[in-house]
Amino acid sequence: MIAFAGAALRPFSRFLAIALGGVLALSPVVEAHANSAEFVRSLWPLAEQRGVSRSAFDSAFSGYNYIPKVMELTGKQPEFRQTVQQYIDKRVTAAQARKGQAMRGEWAQTLAGSQQRWGVQQEIVLAIWGMETNFGGFMGGENTIHALATLTEGGYRRDFFREELLTALRIVSDGHVSPRNMVGSWAGAMGHTQFMPSSFMAYAVDYNGDGRKDIWNSVQDALGSTANYMQKHGWRPGETWGYEVKLPQGFDFAQARAMDRAPLSQWQAMGVQRVSGRPFPRASDMGRLYMPAGASGPTFLLLPNFDVIKRYNNSDSYALAVGHLADRILGGGGFATPWPSGDYALTTSQRAELQSLLNRAGFDVGAPDGVIGPKTRAAVIAYQTRMGLPADGYISGRLLERLKR
Fold first, then answer.
1. Are 188 and 197 contacting, i.e. CB atoms less than 8 angstroms apart?
2. Which end of the chain has less neighbouring CB within 10 Å, N or C?
3. From CA 405, how far away is CA 291, in angstroms rounded?
4. Cα distances (angstroms) measured from residue 226 to each of 86, 240, 308
5. Stretch (H or E) spanning 184
6. Rounded CA gap, 100 and 88, in Å?
7. Three-state SS at 11
């Protein structure tokens, strides 16, 4: 399908996107706080069944206090929207690319060995590191055990976070990190590249061979673990994440929507070309069209590796930022096509207003509810067609302003 930026765009990192997926339980926070000692006692049999030693368990919960601010963060889900341009511009800068290049030089041997072992382009691993923690500049300040315990005790996605907590306890018990050094986000993501405990258990590696998988203090282990994660999720060695492309005059958007994912040769037959003018290395590669700002902004053909990046954070904007930062670390420049000026992302109320205006103009979207579904998208395409605009179905502030005229 042709992909667009819209209401589902989330500028949050992977752990935050996971953590914000649930709702608070009805049990009062005060009651949970009052029963913290009993909560810890109740965990021991479960931890023991997982092979956690008693000494590691006691050490992990030493000084444990329920953390009210962690529970407060679970309820803070403000309606904050960003365009893809705003997301990219904030995270992919010349300074960040230079820092990535410096890190590539500093960790050249580790990165070269990692790429040889797992086949993942080293600049992609660097870009993930940069996106997640600014190359280790900030890995979160919460004690992971205590944060996960608070989330579990407070009833926030209790089953999910209890499982992560028990896994974290096993990591400590196995000697990979001490409880006081196991720090991360309030939602439990840890280390240089922000693994949840379950991801650590499945994908972390002891790259430096010291007997521990230490993604907090060993950059080698962190980068190797990230490459292993990407390889296990299907990274295709020797292939890129995608290409910036340009569309021909009179491009058939309806045909493109029907095609969904197609060989690059088929896109070429429709007149789609790389902005560099160079041919696609492999015409048989499968790609999907992505227009994060509609037809008037940068346009991309995304390859399978783009979807592998999304396994780290299921967001097109995140994956585009990772791919673009990797290219900038390689020495590439900004996008060839400029972003359209004056655009902005819509809030729920603004999307409802847009739907009302479409209804008023004779394009039926049903009752305005601020939710962009197939009916609203079809109405937008019909409106664009009538007005002689590119029928890309892109919904944004620029479209709303036009409808207001």
1. yes
2. C
3. 25
4. 26, 17, 12
5. strand 183-184
6. 16
7. coil
246 by DSSP, 3-state: which?
strand
Give tens-digit pLDDT for 324-359: 999 999 999 999 999 999 999 999 999 999 999 999
Distances (CA, A) of 373 to 2, 17, 352, 395: 14, 22, 12, 11
The whole model's pTM is what? 0.89
Q: How far apart, in Å, are the Cα atoms of 67 and each of 64, 110, 403?
A: 9, 38, 48
- Lookup: tokens for 220: 């080698």
User: How confident is the model over 311-331, as pLDDT tens digits?
Assistant: 999 999 999 999 999 999 999
Q: Is the pLDDT of residue 130 over 90?
A: yes
Opening angle at CA 170, ends 165 and 174, nearest 5:
150
Per domain, the residue ranges of the chain are 25-74+142-184, 348-404
What is the distance between the alpha carbons of residues 236 and 243, in angstroms, rounded to a whole number? 15
Percent of the chain having pLDDT more than 90? 89
User: What does the DSSP 8-state code read for residue 133?
Assistant: H
Determine whether 132 is an active site residue. Answer: yes
Name the token pair of 213.
């998988």
Distance CA 210, CA 35 (A): 40
Q: Looking at beta carbons, which pairs linking 350-355 to residues 24 or more positions away fall under 8 Å?
A: 350/397, 350/400, 351/7, 351/395, 353/400, 354/395, 354/399, 354/400, 354/403, 355/379
263-288 b/e (C-beta count within 10 Å ≥ 16 → b): bbeebbeeebbbeeeeebeeeebbbb
Could you say which DSSP state residue 195 is in? Answer: B
Q: Indicate the DSSP class of residue 296.
A: T
Instruction: Give CA–CA dist 160/183, Å, rounded.
Output: 19
Which entry of 31, 38, 72, 132 is annotated as an active-site residue? 132
Rg (CA), the chain: 24
| Nearest-angstrom CA–CA distance, 138 and 185 | 10
Query: Does the 25-74+142-184 domain belong in CATH 3.30.450?
Result: no
Is the Cβ–Cβ distance between 301 and 267 less than 8 Å?
yes
Q: Tell me which residue has tokens 């590191």.
A: 129
353 close to 399: Cβ distance less than 8 angstroms: no
Taking CA 302 as the corner, what is the angle to CA 315 and CA 84, rounded to the nearest 5 degrees? 40
Average pLDDT over residues 16-34: 41
CB count, 10 Å around CB of 373? 10
